[in-house]
Automatic annotation (TrEMBL):
InterPro entries: PPR_rpt, TPR-like_helical_dom_sf. Keywords: Repeat. It comes from Glycine max (Soybean). PPR repeats lie at residues 44-78, 79-113, 114-148, 149-183, 184-218, 219-253, 254-288, 289-323, 324-358, 359-393, 394-428, 429-463, 464-497. It comes from the Eukaryota. This is Pentacotripeptide-repeat region of PRORP domain-containing protein. NCBIfam families: PPR.
Amino acid sequence: MLCMRHTPPIIQFNKILDSFAKTKHYSTAVSLSHRLELKGIQPDLSTLNILINCFCHMGQITFGLSVLAKILKRCYQPDTITLNTLIKGLCLKGQVKKALHFHDKLLAQGFQLDQVSYGTLIYGVCKIGDTTAAIKLLRKIDGRLTKPNVVMYSTIIDALCKYQRVSEAYGLFSEMAVKGIFADVVTYSTLIYGFCIVGKLKEAIGLLNEMVLKTINPDVYTYNILVDALCKEGKVKETKSVLAVMLKACVKSNVITYSTLMDGYVLVYEVKKAQHVFNAMSLMGVTPDVHTYTILINGFCKSKMVGKALNLFKEMHQKNMVPDTVTYNSLIDGLCKSGRISYVWDLIDEMHDRAIPANVITYNSLIDGLCKNGHLDKAIALFIKIKDKGIRLNMFTFNILFDGLCKGGRLKDAQEVLQELLDKGYHVDIYTYNVMINGLCKQDLLDEALAMLSKMEDNGCKANAVTFEIIISALFEKDENDKAEKLLHEMIARGLL
């Protein structure tokens, strides 16, 4: 086109530039626009809008603003597409305050913005977690700058629900109805999710029924929210009712629906029913994904059916499915609990080869397995190794090793671990102290146990009934009756008996 004798109009070039922008080849569009200008072909407002869009998506907001300056210099009138693109670009870059300042500047210069502009600004403000500012912005524009719409309200309702401020979200939902703004499937789904995460399932189901009465068709996402909430509550039977309604409404279940139902069955230890759902998926034309396999592998491991879990894991390999960290962790935990430690090292190597990072959960399972199978030296060596690797350990890691050492009679090593915890400022809980006191009592080190009782209370950890019972039982067994009775009276005085 550039080489043609009669150069085509700019609109034809714009079509090409726009096609590159729509296919996310932003740098190509920018490069081609430079070639146009070098040939002396003047851009129009559409060309410059395409350029702003490209720069914004490339995160180069400064260049986008320089194009706006060029628009004004050429005496073009920026339209809402120009301004909305820049506002969106600033919000995508996380520069929400700059977007709000830009908005104020535009208003001061007499520009008018539309619902898309304010919908974008509200989304940006909500994304940074400032729902109060989003509501203030909604109040500011209401009836003065533009008419609020369902998108604006739904965005704020979604943000409020994510922060479990469901009462406020429902207040906005009711306000919409008063103002004649009709809630859509997104609004309802968002609010249903909100009620579910705060445990108000009755209200969530009530909203679903309201949708049906108003002929607002719930989609698979809406149903999945309810299925997930019911399953997490262990109400798998009630889930079947939701699925029946879903089927009646001709909404096709997807992989998330089936996976969620499987997870519900695993939660209530009905792994065979989870397996039945897994087998039914392919018959319904739904392909299980990595998450689906992981749920069933986890279920088999929890039900001590590690052989079936391994077979399923092999099936994933046969189907060229790449397990994720959660898959490996589920299987490693199951193998460790069943004493099949030799398999675990192969899985750790496989994770390394696949560049799938083992995390603290992986190592916690392995340390626990080593401790419970009498490999305390290997557990200590692994503990030191992962510390040297810079993997952030949690309290569970220390407690697992601590418990293993105490039960294995390695009290000196256990005391070193306890001291390390205290030195590093960890909040040592009652469980840790009870394990240590129990270990000392089993070794007949009763004076040390009593000293540990004083130490824990000096460190701000109050002894509970279990602590006293461990020491009192040990004292009575060794005929230290006076000390035992003294502790018994103290226990009664504290209201622990």
